[in-house]
C-alpha cells in the first residue's frame, strides 16, 4: 500500500487548508492512520491520529480545536482539516499508517506518504 499526501499550500494567518492522504488500497487493515509534521530545524512531531474500529482521535495540544482528522473508508483516504492556521503551523506534513498495535511508536510505522508543504504567513 502506498500513501499519497496532497492539499498543502500557502495561506495567511487564520486561513484553512485540507490535507488528503490517499491510500492505494484499503485502509481498513490499518490500526492507526496519522498526520505528522516537520518544520525546518525541528524534529518531526505527531499532529493527529485516528484509530480503526472506534475512530478514536488524538491531537497534539498545539492543534487541538483547530485541526480535525477524519477517514473515508470508501475512498481509502484520511483527511486533515486545518483551520485558524498560524505561522507556527508551517511545516512539511506527512501522513502515515501502521498495522501494529495502538501505542506503537511512530518511528515504527510501516507506511509513510511523501510530504506536502504547508506555509502560513503572518
Question: In terms of topology, how is this protein built?
Answer:
Blueprint: E1 3-6, E2 9-12, E3 17-23, E4 32-38, E5 45-51, E6 57-59, E7 67-72, E8 77-82, E9 91-98, E10 111-112, E11 116-121
Offer a concise description of the structure.
With 122 residues, the chain is mostly beta strands.
Notes on the structure:
Helices cover 0% and strands 49% of the residues. The chain has 122 residues and is mainly beta. β5 and β6 (57-59) form a beta hairpin. Strands 2, 4, 5, 6, 9, 10 and 11 form a seven-stranded mixed beta sheet that branches. The protein is built from no helices and eleven strands.
Largest sheet: 7 strands, mixed
Residue-averaged pLDDT, rounded?
A: 95
Helix/strand class = mainly beta
Question: What would you call the shape?
Answer: globular
Unreliably modeled segments = none
Number of helices: 0
| DSSP summary, beta strand count | 11
The H-and-E topology, N to C, reads as EEEEEEEEEEE
For the record, give the distance between the C-alpha atoms at the N and C termini, rounded to a whole number. 38 Å
Oligomer: single chain
User: Approximately what portion of the residues adopt beta-strand conformation?
Assistant: over 45%
The radius of gyration computed from the alpha-carbon positions, rounded to a whole number of angstroms, is 13 Å
- Helix coverage percent: under 10%
